[in-house]
Amino acid sequence: MGVIGVFGCKNAAELVYYGLHALQHRGQEGCGICTTDGTDFYRERGEGLVTEIFNEKKLAKLKGEYAIGHVRYSSSNGNNNNSGLDNVQPFLFRHHTGDFSMAHNGNLVNSRQLKMSLESQGSIFQSSSDTEILAHLIKMNRRKDRIDAIGEALTMIEGAYAFLILTQDKLYVCRDKNGLRPISVGKLNGGYIVSSETCAFEAIGATFVRDVGPGEMVIFEKGKDPESILFTEEYSHNMCAMELIYFARPDSEIEGFNVHTFRKNSGKYLAKLAPVEADLVIGVPDSSISGAIGYAEESGIPYEIGLIKNKYIGRTFIQPSQELREKGVRLKLSPVRSLITGKRVVLLDDSIVRGTTCKHIVKMLKDAGAKEVHVRICCPPMRHPCFYGVDTSTYEELISSKFNVEEVRKMIEADTLFYLPEEYLLKGGNRTELCLACYNGKYPTHLYQSKPDFNIEKKF
User: Which of these CATH numbers, 1.20.1200.10, 2.40.30.10, 3.20.20.150, 3.40.50.2020, describes 260-431?
Assistant: First the structure.
């Protein structure tokens, strides 16, 4: 999922529209834009790609200099309850204390407990998205102003999130205390842009200012400088490693580090740690191209574009069902036979999750005449599920949770297989902290699956 907000810029809806194009790689199931002119709210959303949902006529209806937008994929096992228009953001809430709109990137791990407690006190939910929970928590707190109400509500939710909350005269930008999901601030023509990735700034001509820190809320208000508050003093910099490995575009800068450089470094480390005699290096497009370039530079083996991607096919990892993933892999990639036939190939891939994609690509290369296929993975084996918004929420989905490296190698039919050790993820991004829970099982939050329900009335 990806979010973008515009505050104090003419043609805000158009700016969000182009920003959503830049973030389309983060989700292809649905998208939406909500704007305000300071008096009322205007919203358009739908299931599908940005180009399928929006046109000039729809954008013209979205009035105002303040706007937020969202692209989504369902992250709760891809079940049907998390699909449909009701779950497409931004959400719009009408309330006697003031209307507001909200968009969210991430996943809450205590959503079940919070939702049950809220429902027991009269709340009615219109979607199955955990994004809606924050709106109910804010509105339950009637004793404080909105900044305090939002801040206190944020201390009650646990998990990964970057929230955008748009009122008639303010934009609140909130990042979780562990910094699991990124969000950055930019400037444009006297106004401000916020986005999940800096690549959206480039698309609309904005200038990067800074990242929003973990546990921070930034408030934009007309005629005032942005205000920053920490809603918690217990914070860390455990950004999800998959942001750097897979989700983000290579031209994005995340917490001061270029994504392409991070991935290129990963490829260089793999060349040093797992050298092999080969004729060419190829990467699985798009997220593994940088790693393949790094491997080729370090090893001296030529880099070639051995796989051609059909640019009209979405990302197979974030397809909502296994059947669609498998169909997507077959349609998405084609081998360049003249380059591959008779060659020993080093294949760089960002990760092996279910094994579906990698096995198919290895077979595709060998069917195209490759003598050998040596697979190098730019992260450690995924042995543990993610509960923070990556669609790998059960052990059953993860091939490495059931099989060791040699068994996985045989299953994907590769000649050799090597994973990048987790310490090189930190080294490659010049970091001391990352969320590596899907590799080592060390989750930065409580998970709440077995915790009893609780009553949130005590918090207020």
Answer: 3.40.50.2020
CA-to-CA distance for 303 and 347, rounded, in angstroms?
10
List, in sequence order, the alpha helices (H) in 209-252: 241-242
Fold classification of 2-238 (topology level): Glutamine Phosphoribosylpyrophosphate, subunit 1, domain 1 (3.60.20)
Q: Is the pLDDT assigned to residue 330 strictly greater than 70?
A: no
Q: Given the structure tokens 């158009």, which residue do they identify?
A: 14
Q: What are the backbone dihedrals phi and psi of residue 376, each rounded to the nearest 5 degrees, phi first? A: -125, 125
Within the chain, all domains assigned CATH 3.60.20.10 are found at 2-238
Per-position DSSP letters for 56-113, written without gaps between them? HHHHHH--SSEEEEEEE---STT-GGG-SGGGPSPEEE--TT--EEEEEEEEETTHHH
When pLDDT is cut at 50, 70 and 90, the band that residue 4 belongs to is: very high
Cis before 286 (ω within 30):
yes
Quote the CA–CA distance of 288 and 246 in Å, as a whole number. Answer: 8
> Phi-psi bin for 371: left (phi > 0), alpha (psi -120 to 50), beta?
alpha
Which sign, positive or negative, has the C-alpha torsion 108, 110, 116, 121? negative
Closest to 132 measured CA to CA, from 90, 173, 78: 90
Tokens of 326: 């498998």
Residues of the chain with CATH 3.40.50.2020: 260-431
pLDDT for res 124: 83
pTM exceeds cut of 0.85: yes
Q: Measuring CA to CA, how many Å separate 348 from each of 42, 86, 253, 282, 327?
A: 45, 38, 22, 6, 21
